[in-house]
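retry 2 of 3: previous attempt timed out while embedding zinc ion. Reduced batch size to 1 and resubmitted. Inputs unchanged:
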Amino acid sequence: MEGIKPERLPPRENFIEWYNSLLQLAEIADRRYPIKGTFVWMPYGLKIMRKLIEIWDRIFEENGIEEVYFPLFVPLEFAKINEEWFEGFKADAFYVEGENVILRPTGEPAMYPIFKYWIMEGRLPIKIYQTVSSFRNEGKTTHTMIRDREITFWHEIHTVHKTKEEAKEEMERHRKIYEYIWKEILNIPPICVEKPKYEIFPGADSAYEFYIILPNGRLLENGSINNLGQAYARKFDLFYVDEKGNKQYVWQVCTGNGARFLVAVFALHGDERGLVLPPKLAPIQAVIITIPKEGKNYLEEAKELKKRLENVGIKTFVDESEKTPGEKFNIWDIKGVPIRIEIGEKEIEGGFYSIYRRDLKERIKVNKEEVEKVVKSLLEDAIPRNLYRKVETHYQEKIKYFDNIEEAKRWIEEGNVVKTNWCGKRECFEEIKRLGPSIEAVGLLIDERKDGKCIVCGESTNRLTLIGKTY
Ligand SMILES: [Zn+2]
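retry 2 succeeded.
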């Protein structure tokens, strides 16, 4: 139990403290639920989460990936089919007492035995996803939405294909989907790496992982795409019979992320005043606040403006509460509403509205007639672009290229991330880990090449990695 609600945000440099206070103050999550690694989604937080879910629902469906619902209960006998999977999860699975059942840590053992029936019934390819809670009895320190024991609103895409090529294509499709979410919805430049073989599921083909760099310089994994090859197909006996009558194992892809997308949004766009929401995720895109004077409250004007904005598809809210304008400014700043429109005496007399951009913390005067056009263009263009650029700048400040391991180590210790050439070999991976607690090379960057030498062994390579402290 953490006690009462904090009164103000601590400095953002103390990231975890700032983040926890933000979740509470912005009414995203109530962290006082008395079971470790769980929390309560509050109405405002849940609305943001639902926006994101609506978006991924639409994108997945557009890509032919359909939603299903599998039970949270997984029979222990299914869980034991792939002994390597079970080895990874048996210690931190939740066992349902008195029954041979665990609560799902991931979807594979629940889904794949049922896929076997579907494949036999001629349903290839299978392309499905599920948004659901997953459960891990974490021994490590938990952090809300970063590492929970009940991982809420976690989506997993599972696809099954006849050929290796088709699975590879699907994997690339998932990468494009995630990149679209990062750029267009969350307004964050994606960082995607290819994991080395020894870091992926035994027998799997390849894996991509997305990362963000938190304000404190820590790398946080944020979504993964796994080309499972035939690793599971062979364990679960998932096969089809080809034209020649031969048994052919299927090829599988599994992709997942969830509320961690929001951690990226809160952490990277937020500031000393609170949240800053990307317009596409904001449950309220424009809030109208009136500044009453001498008996006039300007609520009629506010409601009329709300109607005008809603007519062009902008989600608008008039704050009619009893609080003072200053208190209202503060609340909506904390909640990260992208645009605030102020209506008071000077606006009415001057025939304009004062429009405040949360991302820049700046006010502009907008002619009454042009308000729809201006607000729409801010939400669709100027604000997303500025948010994206700000994160890009943050990354540029945090990431520096090094070819000397001692200097690299110092840069990491100062709360930053190192970019360097890396051969990708296991020995060098282990050597990098020895630089310090939680320090890791996160994989090979997929979009970037540079000629150089591996920072550990000196072998020539054009592949690059990021090294930093991870959560
Ligand atoms: Zn090396």
